[in-house]
Design a protein that fits this description.
Blueprint lengths: L8 E5 H12 L7 E5 L1 H5 L3 H11 L3 E4 L2 H9 L6 E3 L5 H9 L3 E4 L2 H9 L4 E4 L11 H11 L3 E5 L11 H20 L4 E5 L1 H6 L7 E4 L22 E6 L2 E5 L4 E2 L5 E2 L4 E6 L16 E4 L2 E4 L9 E4 L20 E8 L2 E3 L1 H8 L3 H6 L6 E5 L37
Parallel strand pairs: 1-20, 2-3, 2-9, 3-4, 4-5, 5-6, 6-7, 7-8, 8-9
Antiparallel strand pairs: 1-10, 10-18, 11-14, 12-13, 14-17, 15-16, 15-18, 18-19
Bound molecules: pyridoxal-5'-phosphate.
Length: about 400
């Protein structure tokens, strides 16, 4: 029974990725390209399988942060146009040329280096993000100096996901003005600024290409429920019950005795921990799903293990009932189980962070398995991997309250 269990498993639904790409492409006018951002190992989902799924569904470019990420895609024989967003050393620039990647430039020195290596370049305009990039006059000068090596003009929004549109609009206005100017001077120049949030909220931000990351994974760029936004979460993160432990009054579990039973309690020991990406800050706060039931992570999360309180399932109350949790049962951290689900957005809210970080934190020792399931409501129903509820439910996922959970 346990043979088909993985200690720490990320199941990535490539049909969901394709659905999300198609959903985004449908927002774009004809002729606007979609660059699928697969940096950081595809936001933890696996860069190569996601890139292939994205290209199959209508993406035509791929975006990465580093030259190593570009090389990984090329080693997998992915030939699509590839843009590296981040800064590079001289040695990395040589590797980027070998990988036939295009690169972002924001200095004359780096432009010279890139052109010497026959790289095509995208001039990075700082329209307000305030990190890398140059002002409008310097961007125009770099574009002129790039000659036939010029491929694009790019910028990046700082607040596209925020309710207040003021800064977003000011960035868009600055970019629109410069893009108009440079497109008039440089035929074929590709102007691009939109991330997922901008792509979904503002058609005027689409220009010649959008660079979408978070939304292609079915995660909401706005941190809310992705389903009403037409996105399907691709990631399911799970483990299994390795053992059940019954404790009595006063017995504790785990480091620091963060849980002390105040009566008979049943706990599941789950062989996944913070080294797999289950944040230690979820101790006594996060929930998991076991056989469709929501259970609290109880006791300190260790590097490789955690414990879950099985409410209403105590030795005294229900030792062997049909609903009793047993070794081998699946434990879901992100995803659906029965009528319940936990979104990456729920976990992020509980931790005071963003869904990007939850997905990226799924560590390299978590096994990635790729599934391809039909959507909920499709005529053919697959295994429950990505069968998501048709309507969103509230409240979302996890309890916002900290502190020790009530013992059963
Ligand atoms: C330059 C650049 N473009 C596009 C993206 C994609 O952003 P998002 O994941 O919000 O769609 C990123 C990600 O941070 C980025 O750094």
């Amino acid at each position: 029974m346990l043979d088909d269990r993985q200690r720490a498993l990320a199941t990535v639904d490539l049909a969901a990725v394709r659905h999300n790409i198609a959903h985004l492409v449908a927002l774009l006018p004809a002729g606007t390209a979609l660059c699928a951002v697969v940096k950081a190992n595809g936001y933890g989902h696996g860069a190569v399988p996601v890139a292939r799924a994205a290209l199959r569904a209508g993406a035509s470019w791929l975006g990465v942060a580093t030259v190593t990420e570009a090389e990984e895609l090329r080693e997998a024989a992915i030939a699509a146009p590839l843009l590296i967003f981040g800064p590079m050393t001289g040695a990395e620039t040589a590797r980027a040329a070998k990988a036939h990647a295009e690169v972002a430039v924001w200095s004359q020195a780096f432009l010279d280096e890139a052109l010497r290596r026959r790289l095509r370049v995208h001039v990075k305009f700082n329209s307000g993000m305030g990190r890398l990039g140059v002002d409008a006059a310097a961007a125009a000068a770099l574009a002129a100096a790039a000659g036939p090596g010029l491929s694009g003009l790019m910028s990046h929004f700082a607040t596209a996901d925020e309710d207040d549109p003021a800064f977003f609009v000011s960035q868009l206005e600055r970019f629109t003005a410069l893009a108009g100017q440079l497109k008039a001077r440089h035929a074929g120049l590709s102007a691009h600024i939109a991330n997922s949030a901008a792509t979904m909220r503002e058609p005027a931000a689409h220009f010649d290409m959008v660079r979408t990351g978070i939304a292609i994974y079915g995660l909401s760029p706005f941190g809310d429920d992705p389903l009403p936004r037409g996105l399907r979460p691709a990631l399911r993160l799970s483990s299994y019950v390795a053992a059940i432990r019954e404790v009595g009054w006063g017995e504790s579990v785990g480091y620091g005795r963060a849980f002390i039973a105040d009566g008979p309690a049943r706990l599941a020991i789950v062989p996944i921990g913070y080294a797999d990406g289950i944040a230690r800050a979820l101790t006594n706060r996060g929930d998991v799903l076991i056989a469709g039931r929501r259970c609290r992570i109880t006791g300190t999360i260790s590097m490789d293990q955690l414990t879950v309180l099985l409410p209403g399932d105590t030795a005294a109350v229900r030792p062997r009932g049909p609903a009793a949790v047993r070794p081998g049962d699946e434990v879901v951290f992100i995803g659906r189980s029965g009528a319940e689900r936990i979104l990456a957005e729920d976990v992020a809210r509980l931790l005071g962070t963003i869904n990007y970080e939850i997905a990226c934190d799924v560590s390299s020792r978590v096994v990635r398995r790729y599934a391809d399931t039909p959507a909920a409501g499709d005529a053919v129903r697959g295994p429950s991997l990505a069968g998501l509820p048709a309507t969103p439910r509230a409240p979302l996922g996890m309890s916002p309250a900290g502190g020790p959970a009530d013992p059963a």
